[in-house]
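General statements about sequence and structure are easier to judge against a single worked case. No coordinates are needed to read the tokens, only the vocabulary itself. The sequence in question and its structure tokens are set out directly beneath this paragraph.
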Amino acid sequence: MIKQMKFWMMLGTLTVVSAFADVAPETEGMQDTRYDGTFLTASPTFVYDRSSQMGGIHSESEEWSPTKVRDRLLYNRVSGIPSWTPREPSVWMSVGNETGDMMYQDPRYGGWGSCCINGTPMLEAGFRSKSYSGIWTTARYFQVDHYSSSNGKVRRKMVKRVDYSIFGENLPYQSTAYAGVGYSVGSFDVSLLAGHEYLWIFAESGRWLPVEYKPRAEARFDSKYVHANMVFENAEYTILAGEQMGNRKEVNGSIKLGEDTIAQKKKLWNLGLGVAFRAVDDSGAMPVELKEDYVVFPYLEYSLRPTDRLSLAGYVGTSGREFASKDSVNLEFPEFASVQTNIGFKNHVASTLNPLSDDYEYFNSDTIHLRVDGVMQLHRAYLDLRNRFEYFGLGMNFSGWFEKGAETFDVESFSVDSANTYYGKQRFSYRTGDVGRIDSWIKAISGEAEAAFYYKKMFTLSARAGFERIDGDEERFEVNPVEEWLTIGANWNLWDHFQVKHTWGYRSDARWNLRTEVPYVVKGGWYWDASLSQNFPEYGITLTGTILHAIGETRVLVPNGGFDRTRFWCNILKKF
């Protein structure tokens, strides 16, 4: 193990920083373009997103925090829900598609019209106007069909509709359209949005649950010391092959008193007092349930900076039934030989990862309990070193963490559904049981090395390499994260108007343990992403073309998910 650590440290130091920028994905929920950890995508509405420096065995999207109070709260492990945050004044359009060898597809799948392998596009168009006396308007439509074709026939049986989307018949996992109006003057900002949306939610049972929001409405209010949002959702759930319907009318939101950013370097202290809430009114055959039909979660955010080099920050909150807290301490040392040094410690103690999520899921005659007694605790210490010369940058990060009470899933039984798809017969696995805990210590060490070469603002060559070793009851982990990863990228900024960016990334194997009877291994491999951008500053226009996963093998990254394929997308953006 020591030899492996030395190897990765030397590789990261010799390959040619924090300024590293990955090629951006086409829209929210497509974080599989990151390689510094474990990012396993099943659709734009589900991704297991865990960076190598995060600590713990859970996904980033599983953790509720005050910074996510405007996120969409559904189940414990659902993530990547489409954002309704208004953009800056501009008009934009994006189109994209999965790509493949059509000559090869024709004889294998019976012709282009029979399988639509390349017929899985992403479409987006929207605008936000300039402010006129503070008043502005906005609208956005975006739909992502990626990952949707391999299990499309299975999901089609659930809704028995060819129009379960705002546009087209490819049965996308996410299809959203909204419009609204706002008023912004100084630090005062208020907006009202309303729209129609189709989502497929990945449940704990392994099912994809179709949900139609008709309508969804969201109001936001922000000033220097008051921040609030209120959401109304009329959601229709389809189950049992469309024979039964469930309806949920939900109100959720948050109110916070205090400044928006708690970690302000120039302030001695800062406090934010808030409350997040949700209330539901269910009828019909609902596949999920909130125990008391409502939950209210008051919380306190805080930051303290007693010196210029010492900072503390965190939050604590409780609903009476559940509680959650996170805190961090960071100490920055004076520079020595041009090296910036930071050491820190982070804690996460909670009775649940998401105190506002549902309590039960109903699958056939079984009830899956999504809450578990006890407490989880995660503690992580780190050391970070950075150095920047005229043309070179170097960095290293070492950390160790230990966790007890980590949430997992205690499987009682599996069931398998075999279905004929465009790619032959495929097996889809479902499970029953309850959310449980790992009541033993999980320990790990991780390291990361970064290096970069800069040539003015014209060119950057950068590389990162990392490792992580975890010791614990690994058979009860939902996911065994990748243990090694490497990213090499370059960025050319030519004539200040033309930018070329590309990234080579490698991730080792990851493994899902509790979604199938036999652990499901996601084989590691190399990926290549590239992007070209042309800027026309006199018109405020930017054109971008991006290809993602150009050399990655076609594989399913999440059980019951769709195939991860090479895809291309392009965007035009006009700023006002």
About this structure: Residues 2-14 form the longest helix (13 residues). DSSP finds four helices and 34 strands in the chain.
